[in-house]
């Protein structure tokens, strides 16, 4: 069995499943130590405008990764959206954590590829070339990821989805937990939103000559790209307000 999984023709799918298990393991270990790896990854990724799509959309539409769901208008139909942005929106990026979608994609791609190769080998006595088998595996993996994303978006509380909007972090108090923040050299910080959820972000000082050390409490003042800018919090009233919330 092992030699079939590690054959050249099935190696891409075995690697995908192995990578999926590694990511899941890293996320699990991170949770044990209180590190939100998934939140940190989301903070590093650019924002994608995601419309409020009813989760009860018709799942019987065309499975093509390029075709929009006609029953659920989305950013895919926007004339100014790039192909990559359209694809991200189509698979529910922004509505479900990015790592969860990546795990779903790798799982669907790996399993579908192994099943396809197994069926071909059973019928014809040999595997398809890996690059050929990759095409139908991708055609299965992308729609599968979309449907998993739609399903998970039903489970994720609506207020949690609203809470992860990065614009809501501006004006929040955060604590630097790893590294020293200098201009051009961000450090990792954590904060809590109004729902009590913990988020991990990368931030740097808003002033060129400022240094924010590990353990210091800062006030997030704006977002620049994937990073946030912050100043040292000198107001005890702001800290008390955050603690009460």
Structural class: alpha+beta
For the largest beta-sheet, the strand count, sense and barrel status come to:
5 strands, mixed, barrel
Along the chain, the helix and strand elements come as HHHHHHHEEEEEH
Report the strand count.
Answer: 5
Q: Please work out how many helical segments DSSP would assign.
A: 8
How many domains would you count in the coordinates?
2
Task: Please give a structural write-up.
The protein has 245 residues and is α+β, with helices and mostly antiparallel strands. Helices cover 45% and strands 14% of the residues. It has helices spanning 2-5, 11-32, 37-44, 83-90, 98-124, 130-155, 158-163, 236-244; strands at 173-178, 187-192, 198-205, 217-224, 227-232. β2 (187-192) and β3 (198-205) form a beta hairpin. The longest helix is centred in the middle third of the chain and has 27 residues, at 98-124. The protein is elongated, with a radius of gyration of 22 Å. The N and C termini lie far apart (55 Å). Residues 48-81 and 158-164 have low confidence and may be disordered.
Task: Give the key terms.
14% strand, five-stranded mixed beta barrel, 2 domains, OB fold (Dihydrolipoamide Acetyltransferase, E2P), 245 residues, alpha+beta
Question: Can you lay out the helices and strands and say which pair or pack?
Answer:
Elements lengths: L1 H4 L5 H22 L4 H8 L38 H8 L7 H27 L5 H26 L2 H6 L9 E6 L8 E6 L5 E8 L11 E8 L2 E6 L3 H9 L1
Parallel strand pairs: 3-5
Antiparallel strand pairs: 1-2, 1-4, 2-3, 4-5
Helix pairs in contact: 2-5, 5-6
């Amino acid at each position: 069995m092992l030699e079939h999984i590690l054959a050249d023709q099935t190696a891409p799918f075995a690697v995908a499943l192995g990578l999926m298990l590694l990511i899941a393991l890293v996320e699990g270990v991170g949770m044990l130590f209180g590190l939100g790896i998934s939140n940190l990854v989301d903070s590093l990724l650019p924002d994608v405008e995601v419309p409020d799509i009813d989760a009860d959309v018709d799942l019987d539409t065309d499975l093509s990764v390029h075709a929009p769901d006609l029953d659920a208008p989305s950013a895919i139909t926007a004339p100014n959206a790039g192909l990559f942005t359209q694809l991200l929106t189509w698979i529910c990026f922004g509505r479900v954590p990015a790592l969860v979608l990546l795990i779903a994609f790798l799982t669907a791609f790996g399993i579908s590829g192994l099943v396809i190769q197994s069926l071909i080998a059973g019928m014809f006595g040999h595997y398809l070339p890996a690059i050929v088998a990759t095409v139908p595996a991708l055609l299965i993996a992308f729609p599968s990821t979309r449907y998993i994303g739609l399903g998970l978006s039903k489970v994720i509380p609506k207020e949690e989805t609203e809470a992860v909007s990065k614009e809501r972090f501006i004006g929040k108090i955060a604590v630097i937990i790893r590294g020293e923040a200098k201009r051009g050299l961000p450090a990792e910080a954590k904060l809590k939103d109004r729902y009590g959820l913990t988020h991990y972000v990368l931030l740097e000082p808003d002033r060129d000559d400022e240094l924010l050390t590990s353990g210091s409490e800062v006030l997030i003042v704006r977002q620049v790209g994937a990073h946030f800018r912050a100043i040292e919090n000198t107001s005890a009233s702001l800290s008390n307000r955050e603690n009460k919330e």
